[in-house]
Amino acid sequence: MAGWAVSRATPTPVEKPWGLYVEEPGNPREFGRHVLPEADAALIRGAAESVTTPRTWIKTPAEPEEIAPWAPTGWVVAYEETGHLMATDLATTYPVVPDGYTAEVENRDSVIRVRVLDAAGEPAARGQIALAGEAAIADQIETWEAHRRRGLGQFVMRTLADRAAGAGAALGILAATDAGRALYESLGWKKHAPLGACVYRP
Protein backbone atom coordinates (compact mmCIF):
# COMPACT_ATOMS: atom_id res chain seq x y z
CA MET A 1 0.00 0.00 0.00
CA ALA A 2 2.85 2.40 0.80
CA GLY A 3 4.40 1.78 -2.61
CA TRP A 4 1.06 2.26 -4.35
CA ALA A 5 0.66 5.60 -2.56
CA VAL A 6 4.14 6.64 -3.73
CA SER A 7 3.27 5.66 -7.29
CA ARG A 8 0.03 7.66 -7.29
CA ALA A 9 1.47 10.57 -5.27
CA THR A 10 -1.35 10.29 -2.73
CA PRO A 11 -1.13 11.11 0.98
CA THR A 12 0.57 8.53 3.20
CA PRO A 13 -1.77 5.63 4.08
CA VAL A 14 -3.36 5.88 7.54
CA GLU A 15 -3.63 2.86 9.82
CA LYS A 16 -7.17 1.87 10.80
CA PRO A 17 -8.45 -0.94 13.05
CA TRP A 18 -9.37 -2.92 9.91
CA GLY A 19 -6.34 -2.12 7.73
CA LEU A 20 -5.09 0.95 5.85
CA TYR A 21 -6.86 3.93 4.32
CA VAL A 22 -5.63 6.40 1.71
CA GLU A 23 -7.36 9.34 0.03
CA GLU A 24 -6.98 10.19 -3.64
CA PRO A 25 -7.34 13.96 -4.01
CA GLY A 26 -8.48 15.00 -7.46
CA ASN A 27 -9.52 11.52 -8.59
CA PRO A 28 -13.09 11.86 -9.93
CA ARG A 29 -13.63 8.12 -9.80
CA GLU A 30 -12.24 7.29 -6.39
CA PHE A 31 -12.37 9.48 -3.30
CA GLY A 32 -10.34 7.04 -1.23
CA ARG A 33 -9.81 3.36 -0.50
CA HIS A 34 -9.63 1.06 2.47
CA VAL A 35 -7.29 -1.92 1.99
CA LEU A 36 -7.94 -4.86 4.28
CA PRO A 37 -5.22 -7.47 4.88
CA GLU A 38 -7.72 -10.32 5.05
CA ALA A 39 -11.26 -11.09 3.97
CA ASP A 40 -13.38 -10.86 7.10
CA ALA A 41 -17.00 -9.80 7.54
CA ALA A 42 -16.31 -7.79 10.70
CA LEU A 43 -13.40 -5.93 9.09
CA ILE A 44 -15.42 -5.05 6.00
CA ARG A 45 -18.36 -3.84 8.08
CA GLY A 46 -16.06 -1.82 10.33
CA ALA A 47 -14.48 -0.09 7.34
CA ALA A 48 -17.85 0.46 5.68
CA GLU A 49 -19.39 2.02 8.80
CA SER A 50 -16.61 4.62 8.87
CA VAL A 51 -17.46 5.87 5.37
CA THR A 52 -19.74 8.83 4.64
CA THR A 53 -18.37 9.89 1.24
CA PRO A 54 -19.49 8.22 -2.01
CA ARG A 55 -16.80 6.79 -4.31
CA THR A 56 -14.94 5.31 -1.36
CA TRP A 57 -13.68 1.80 -2.04
CA ILE A 58 -12.86 -1.28 0.03
CA LYS A 59 -10.41 -3.82 -1.37
CA THR A 60 -9.53 -7.15 0.21
CA PRO A 61 -7.98 -10.49 -0.83
CA ALA A 62 -11.20 -12.34 -1.67
CA GLU A 63 -13.43 -13.24 -4.59
CA PRO A 64 -16.31 -10.76 -5.07
CA GLU A 65 -18.85 -13.53 -4.45
CA GLU A 66 -17.32 -14.00 -1.01
CA ILE A 67 -17.64 -10.38 0.07
CA ALA A 68 -21.06 -9.72 -1.51
CA PRO A 69 -23.06 -10.99 1.52
CA TRP A 70 -21.00 -8.77 3.81
CA ALA A 71 -21.50 -5.49 1.91
CA PRO A 72 -23.83 -3.17 3.90
CA THR A 73 -26.67 -1.17 2.38
CA GLY A 74 -25.36 1.47 -0.02
CA TRP A 75 -22.31 -0.60 -1.00
CA VAL A 76 -21.98 -2.19 -4.45
CA VAL A 77 -19.69 -5.12 -5.18
CA ALA A 78 -17.53 -4.12 -8.16
CA TYR A 79 -17.31 -7.39 -10.04
CA GLU A 80 -15.62 -5.63 -12.96
CA GLU A 81 -12.85 -4.46 -10.63
CA THR A 82 -11.88 -7.92 -9.41
CA GLY A 83 -8.13 -8.27 -9.65
CA HIS A 84 -5.25 -10.54 -8.83
CA LEU A 85 -2.44 -9.85 -6.37
CA MET A 86 0.75 -11.02 -8.11
CA ALA A 87 4.44 -11.05 -7.26
CA THR A 88 7.80 -12.09 -8.67
CA ASP A 89 11.48 -12.09 -7.84
CA LEU A 90 12.95 -9.24 -9.84
CA ALA A 91 15.62 -10.14 -12.39
CA THR A 92 17.67 -8.19 -14.93
CA THR A 93 16.97 -9.15 -18.56
CA TYR A 94 18.26 -6.16 -20.60
CA PRO A 95 15.19 -5.76 -22.86
CA VAL A 96 15.41 -4.12 -26.28
CA VAL A 97 12.64 -1.84 -27.50
CA PRO A 98 10.73 -3.38 -30.46
CA ASP A 99 11.49 -2.10 -33.95
CA GLY A 100 9.72 1.11 -34.89
CA TYR A 101 9.52 2.39 -31.33
CA THR A 102 11.60 4.45 -28.93
CA ALA A 103 11.55 4.44 -25.14
CA GLU A 104 11.96 7.08 -22.46
CA VAL A 105 12.81 6.20 -18.86
CA GLU A 106 12.50 8.61 -15.95
CA ASN A 107 13.31 8.09 -12.27
CA ARG A 108 11.84 10.71 -9.95
CA ASP A 109 10.70 10.65 -6.34
CA SER A 110 11.21 6.87 -6.02
CA VAL A 111 9.04 6.19 -9.06
CA ILE A 112 10.51 4.79 -12.29
CA ARG A 113 8.42 5.56 -15.38
CA VAL A 114 8.72 4.09 -18.87
CA ARG A 115 7.07 5.60 -21.95
CA VAL A 116 7.16 3.96 -25.36
CA LEU A 117 6.60 6.16 -28.41
CA ASP A 118 5.81 5.16 -31.98
CA ALA A 119 7.62 6.43 -35.08
CA ALA A 120 5.50 9.59 -35.08
CA GLY A 121 6.36 10.31 -31.46
CA GLU A 122 2.90 9.40 -30.19
CA PRO A 123 2.38 7.37 -26.98
CA ALA A 124 2.16 3.61 -27.55
CA ALA A 125 2.70 2.08 -24.08
CA ARG A 126 3.62 3.10 -20.58
CA GLY A 127 4.12 1.86 -17.03
CA GLN A 128 5.68 2.79 -13.72
CA ILE A 129 7.06 1.12 -10.63
CA ALA A 130 7.40 2.61 -7.14
CA LEU A 131 10.35 1.71 -4.93
CA ALA A 132 9.56 0.82 -1.32
CA GLY A 133 12.67 -0.68 0.25
CA GLU A 134 13.26 -4.19 -1.11
CA ALA A 135 9.83 -4.19 -2.78
CA ALA A 136 8.76 -2.46 -5.98
CA ILE A 137 5.10 -1.95 -6.90
CA ALA A 138 4.26 -1.92 -10.62
CA ASP A 139 1.36 0.33 -11.55
CA GLN A 140 -0.54 1.88 -14.47
CA ILE A 141 0.74 -0.57 -17.08
CA GLU A 142 -0.94 0.22 -20.38
CA THR A 143 -0.53 -0.42 -24.09
CA TRP A 144 -2.62 1.62 -26.51
CA GLU A 145 -4.98 -0.58 -28.52
CA ALA A 146 -3.39 0.12 -31.91
CA HIS A 147 -0.01 -1.07 -30.60
CA ARG A 148 -0.97 -4.27 -28.81
CA ARG A 149 0.53 -7.70 -29.55
CA ARG A 150 3.85 -6.18 -30.55
CA GLY A 151 5.81 -6.92 -27.40
CA LEU A 152 5.48 -3.45 -25.90
CA GLY A 153 3.91 -4.66 -22.66
CA GLN A 154 6.71 -7.15 -22.13
CA PHE A 155 9.28 -4.47 -22.88
CA VAL A 156 7.75 -2.06 -20.38
CA MET A 157 7.56 -4.69 -17.64
CA ARG A 158 11.09 -5.98 -18.21
CA THR A 159 12.47 -2.44 -18.27
CA LEU A 160 10.72 -1.57 -15.01
CA ALA A 161 12.02 -4.77 -13.40
CA ASP A 162 15.58 -4.05 -14.60
CA ARG A 163 15.58 -0.52 -13.23
CA ALA A 164 13.95 -1.54 -9.93
CA ALA A 165 16.46 -4.37 -9.44
CA GLY A 166 19.26 -1.95 -10.22
CA ALA A 167 17.93 0.35 -7.50
CA GLY A 168 18.09 -2.46 -4.92
CA ALA A 169 14.58 -3.91 -5.05
CA ALA A 170 14.23 -7.71 -4.96
CA LEU A 171 10.47 -8.33 -4.98
CA GLY A 172 7.98 -7.08 -7.54
CA ILE A 173 4.30 -6.69 -6.58
CA LEU A 174 1.28 -5.65 -8.63
CA ALA A 175 -2.50 -5.81 -8.79
CA ALA A 176 -3.45 -7.25 -12.16
CA THR A 177 -6.71 -7.02 -14.06
CA ASP A 178 -8.12 -10.05 -15.84
CA ALA A 179 -6.89 -8.55 -19.12
CA GLY A 180 -3.33 -8.03 -17.86
CA ARG A 181 -2.88 -11.26 -15.94
CA ALA A 182 -1.74 -13.31 -18.97
CA LEU A 183 1.03 -10.83 -19.75
CA TYR A 184 2.41 -10.94 -16.23
CA GLU A 185 2.22 -14.72 -16.04
CA SER A 186 4.20 -14.95 -19.29
CA LEU A 187 6.94 -12.99 -17.52
CA GLY A 188 7.02 -15.25 -14.48
CA TRP A 189 4.71 -13.34 -12.14
CA LYS A 190 2.56 -15.58 -9.93
CA LYS A 191 -0.88 -14.98 -8.47
CA HIS A 192 -1.00 -15.06 -4.68
CA ALA A 193 -4.57 -13.94 -3.97
CA PRO A 194 -7.71 -12.55 -5.60
CA LEU A 195 -8.58 -8.92 -5.00
CA GLY A 196 -12.27 -8.22 -4.49
CA ALA A 197 -13.68 -4.71 -4.31
CA CYS A 198 -16.82 -2.87 -3.29
CA VAL A 199 -17.65 0.82 -3.52
CA TYR A 200 -19.97 3.13 -1.57
CA ARG A 201 -22.74 4.32 -3.93
CA PRO A 202 -25.68 5.27 -1.69
From TrEMBL:
Record-linked SUPFAM superfamilies: Acyl-CoA N-acyltransferases (Nat)
Span of domain N-acetyltransferase: 65-202
InterPro entries: Acyl_CoA_acyltransferase (IPR016181), GNAT_dom (IPR000182)
Protein name: N-acetyltransferase domain-containing protein
